[in-house]
Design goal:
Number of helices: 13
CATH superfamily of the domain at 6-45 and 56-70 and 108-178 and 295-371: FAD/NAD(P)-binding domain
Number of strands: 19
Strand content: 15-25%
Largest sheet: 7 strands, mixed
Helix content: 25-40%
CATH topology of the domain at 6-45 and 56-70 and 108-178 and 295-371: FAD/NAD(P)-binding domain
């Protein structure tokens, strides 16, 4: 195969811009990025990026700028529904030792600012307001056509356009659609200046299990002036199959009832933790409702000169904080494979899938398991769950099981060590 010279990338999120940067830096392949939104989005809450993703961001040259904008949130603090602390754990003690990186939480808009700045410095063109309507390929290349009657041709095309990927729907695997996970996320970003003094000691991810889901908060800026808080709970799909109108109505109802719901769940929560949450709930004026969808395992990722990456191929529940990291691993493996001489794109994509599927399937199942703590439960079951988790965390810390890498080995994985 003649070495590719140009790529079309659909999607200007982390996956698409990481792909454009890596292909230029390492493979000397130029990319043109097309984004359906009319301008950079201001939507989103905060994103967690563990060790495996941070190491790859460092190799892209982005880590230092991200670190200036992010909070270190490697610690997990679990609070009982009554308010007292029942367990603490360092989520990255072992993986940090192996990789040199911990766990950062950053506002999505701040993360995208870093990516956009890097793309501008690298002179990578990004075209907004481009809705993909067609893909045609032949032996010479692949052509993408957009709804404004413009088109572009390149040696290959990457679909980095998220869980509702147009590349997947139009060309790669039209029959594969996302499925609802059964869990929703209601979240907000809030400035901490008006919160109680306890805000000054906030460290890492602080969580409380309730009878109706998981309630958690963490800082998401380097100076801790902003927190990201969320309520993650099990919720049935709206009547009629969960169309846009059904979800909008259900989301509206959930948001309207949120303060009453949370204050009722926390009525017995006391102390600094209880005071903190009641202040957060009362001071929050804007919340976002987000039903969590995921991709079914086993879908098609490649067709001809086209490959889908990141959430377009293997969107998973966010309960393992691996969305960005999985996309980065995709990008780095593809980049490595493209440097091997003598392989056709078909062969490159085949090896790519062989190497990536076991890893992404494993992480998707982990995220699904982690989501189980969002399910509804009764008061006695919650108490038993708190006791069990407290006991496990105590044994983990007392026996220093972190030294064995238990629960952290996936975070030390290095995709560039894959034999290809």
């Amino acid at each position: 195969m003649t070495k590719p010279q140009k790529a079309i990338i659909i999607g200007a999120g982390p996956a698409g811009l990481a792909a454009a940067l890596r292909l230029q830096q390492y493979n000397h392949i130029s990319s043109v990025v097309y984004e359906i939104r009319p301008k950079p989005t201001t939507l989103g809450g905060a994103i967690g990026i563990p060790s495996n993703g941070l190491r790859l961001l460092h190799r892209l040259g982005l880590y230092d700028n991200i670190r200036l904008r992010a909070a270190e949130t490697s610690n997990l603090v679990l609070h009982a529904i009554k308010g007292d602390v029942i367990g603490k754990a360092d989520l990255t003690s072992w993986s940090r030792d192996k990789t040199g990186f911990g766990y950062l939480r950053i506002q999505r808009t701040s993360l995208m600012d870093v990516f956009y700045d890097a793309a501008r410095l690298a002179d990578i063109p990004i075209h907004f307001g481009k809705r993909l309507v067609g893909i045609v390929e032949n032996s010479d290349g692949v052509t993408a056509t957009f709804d404004d009657n413009t088109s572009d041709t390149a040696d290959f095309l990457l679909g980095c356009d998220g869980i509702h990927s147009a590349v997947r729907k139009l060309y790669v695997d039209p029959n594969m659609t996302p499925e609802y996970s059964g869990v929703v996320n209601i979240f907000s970003l809030l400035e901490t200046i008006m919160l109680p003094q306890a805000r000054l000691s906030l460290d890492g991810l602080n969580a409380t299990l309730t009878t109706d889901g998981l309630l958690a908060l963490c800082p998401c800026t380097a100076t801790n002036e902003m927190i990201y808080w969320f309520f993650s709970r099990q919720l049935s799909m709206p009547p009629g199959g969960g169309g846009r109108d059904g979800w909008e109505e259900k989301g509206k109802q959930e948001v309207e009832n949120l303060k009453v719901t949370l204050l009722e769940l926390l009525k017995d929560t006391s102390g600094e933790w209880g005071d903190m949450w009641k202040a957060i709930i009362n001071q929050t004026n804007v919340v976002k409702f987000y039903p969590i969808f995921r991709m079914v395992l086993g879908g098609q990722w490649a067709r001809g000169r086209c490959l889908i990456l990141g959430d377009a191929a293997h969107a998973m529940q966010p309960h393992a904080s691996q969305g960005v990291s999985m996309a980065l691993e995709d990008v780095f493996l593809l980049s490595k494979l493209l440097e091997i001489p003598g392989r056709s794109l078909e062969e490159v994509y085949a090896v790519y899938e062989q190497k990536r599927r076991p890893r992404t399937d494993r992480m998707s199942k982990m995220a699904e398991r982690n989501g189980n703590v969002r399910k509804k439960t009764g008061p006695w079951q919650l108490w038993l769950q708190e006791c069990a988790i407290s006991g496990m965390m105590s044994v983990y810390n007392l026996c220093r099981l972190d030294r064995l890498g238990i629960g952290q080995k996936e975070l030390a994985y290095d995709v560039e060590e894959e034999e290809v």
